[in-house]
Amino acid sequence: MAKQKNVFTEYRNYDLPLSFPVLLLSGDYWRISDVPSGRLHFHNCLEIGVCHSDSGSLEFYGIPAPFRAGDVTVIPRNVPHTTYSDAGLASHWSWLFLDPKELFKDFLPKGWKNYDLLTYGFSNYRFIFNKEEFPEIHQTLLLAIRAMEEQKPGYQLAVRGLLLALYIEIYRFESTCASGGETLNAEDINRPGTSAPLSIAPALDYVENNYMQQFSIEYLAQLCHWSPTHFRRMFHEIMGTSPLDYVNSTRILKSCSLLCSTQESILNISEMVGFQSVSSYNRCFIKVMRISPREYRKQISHADSSVRSQAILEYSGWMHPE
Q1: Positive or negative CA dihedral for 128, 133, 136, 140?
Q2: Are 97 and 43 in contact, with CB atoms under 8 Å apart?
Q3: Which of 41, 88, 273, 277 lies in disulfide reach of 255, CB 3.0 to 4.6 Å?
């Protein structure tokens, strides 16, 4: 029996600004090759994209689904996927990355659940919405993208309103949908080579929501129903780093936003993001950012605000088409 080919999965982190947690990737150069990359990737935030031209396939957990011009894709955080165009084509896309919980926290009721549209919160999650069946979703997303591109006075408020309307429309559909479109079943998700990234999703979700708290790696393993040893091995294979380094990196990236947007002391910030001592925080910060928190804040304070809002994004996220 031939040895099964390894499936490589890439984690792409976007630390969105707290004041307006939205990132737009658009322009004519955002075109997708017809050559599959050979690896899946997943994000730490909600991705909403629109295909402007041509056609191809999106793979979710390694399972292909066709797309065509006009389709809108809604991919929650921690969902492994990849995109490639049909042979001889180079599909043109725009994407918005956002943190719904932060973006809509002043608009949605406190009891609102499943902010991030996590797939295990819906029985038949739909990733792709076509233009003909969902014209409102398509048009609202295009308006939000245009507002982000033009950046006229008050554009952030306009984008927030448009994305809220879009988000509620998607949430309403996912919550009430009883049919329509093919969905992944348990057999597909758990087949060899596709289940590992999905299996660590509970740990990634827990870290994202509780990074400021104290918890053990053993507890993260328990969330994934794995032994600590197996969890550490699989986590490193998927993420390319250890669970402890991932937790510390998450805390450091969260602290960068606080260093940029608040006047809190470095000691207070270290405690706010979950470090038990400022010396440990300083040491981890230098390891991740190659600079001390004090020097980082000093450099950022002299930077233009438009550059400041994107500095970490360019450092840690996917900013170029494949």
Answers
A1: positive
A2: yes
A3: 273
Structure tokens at 168: 């509620």
- Residue 73 and residue 125 in contact, taking contact as beta carbons nearer than 8 Å: no
Asked if 39 and 8 count as a contact pair (C-beta separation under 8 A), the reply is yes
Label residue 206 left, alpha or beta by phi (over 0 means left) and psi (-120 to 50 means alpha). alpha
Q: Residue 96 gets which letter from DSSP?
A: E
Secondary structure (DSSP) of 175-208: HH--S-S----HHHHTSTTTHHHHHTHHHHHHHH
Alpha carbon of residue 322 to chain centroid: 17
What are the CB-based long-range contacts (under 8 Å, 24+) for 172-180? 173/126, 173/129, 173/134, 174/117, 174/122, 174/125, 174/126, 175/122, 177/122, 177/124, 177/126, 178/124, 179/124, 180/124, 180/126
Tell me the three state secondary structure of residue 11. strand
Domains of the chain: 8-176 (2.60.120.280), 200-316 (1.10.10.60)
User: pTM higher than 0.90, yes or no?
Assistant: no
Rounded CA separation 146/157 (Å): 13
Length of the chain: 322
